[in-house]
């Protein structure tokens, strides 16, 4: 099984990057056949959607910087989103990726393709934020994008209060394991 992992933090040793690493280790541990395709939103630096209308006319985008992600969406069975909270939302490079999923909205509603991404994915959403409030706005934003990516949100792990305490990584690992168990117990 392949997991497509999209990350949103510029900090290599930030909390969400550590959570990503925890997921990668546990995913590989769960099965020797498990694979990971990692899209680092800061390294990828996807161009923002400019609403040019190209994807409304044909099944393509004027930019090719998300070709790897587009291909992975069609083969992965798991989708993992790991991001810090910036101004109650996704950091800009990550938001650019979500905006670029508009091509699948147009493929469906303008070009009439009933299911542009046939492969369904189970999704895990992990966030890190300085304050104590759950990132409800981000969950709503992500739900819309997940629909376009043919993914269902199975589990959210929100690490709150990173400004003033160390995250409980044992707890985080347990939560990640519960997500991974979905594939072991019910692989379809
Ligand atoms: C530009 C910027 C905006 C932020 N906005 C928020 C915010 O709206 N709410 C919040 O709780 N924390 C906010 N934070 C704090 C980060 O979410 C927090 O430090 C988090 O742990 C960073 O994730 P990372 O450790 O994975 O890099 C912000 C930090 C930065 C740099």
What does this structure look like?
This protein has one domain: 3-Layer(aba) Sandwich (Rossmann fold), CATH 3.40.50. It is 41% helix and 19% strand. The longest helix has 17 residues, at 169-185. Helix 1 (15-30) runs parallel beside helix 8 (169-185). The radius of gyration is 16 Å and the shape is globular. It is built from eight helices and five strands, in the order βαβαααβααβαβα. The structure holds flavin mononucleotide. Residues 9, 11, 14-17, 84-88, 128-131, 162 line the site of flavin mononucleotide.
Give a brief rundown of this model.
41% of the residues lie in helices and 19% in strands. The protein is α/β, with parallel strands linked by helices. Strands 2-1-3-4-5 form a five-stranded parallel β-sheet, with helices on both faces.
């Amino acid at each position: 099984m392949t997991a497509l992992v999209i990350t949103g933090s510029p900090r290599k040793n930030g909390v969400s990057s550590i959570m990503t690493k925890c997921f990668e280790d546990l995913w590989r541990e769960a099965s020797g056949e498990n694979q990971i395709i990692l899209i680092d939103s800061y390294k990828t630096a996807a161009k923002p959607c400019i609403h040019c209308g190209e994807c409304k006319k044909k099944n393509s985008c004027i930019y090719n910087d998300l070709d790897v992600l587009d291909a992975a969406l069609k083969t992965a069975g798991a989708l993992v989103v790991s991001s810090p909270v910036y101004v109650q939302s996704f950091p800009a490079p990550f938001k650019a990726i979500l905006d670029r999923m508009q091509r699948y909205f147009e493929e469906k509603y303008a070009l009439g393709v009933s299911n542009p991404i046939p492969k369904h994915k189970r999704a895990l959403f992990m966030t890190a934020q300085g304050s104590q409030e759950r990132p409800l706005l981000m969950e709503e934003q992500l739900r819309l994008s997940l629909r376009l990516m043919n993914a269902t949100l199975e589990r959210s792990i929100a690490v709150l209060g990173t400004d003033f305490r160390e995250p409980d990584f044992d707890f985080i690992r347990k939560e990640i394991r519960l997500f991974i168990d979905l594939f072991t117990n019910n692989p379809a």
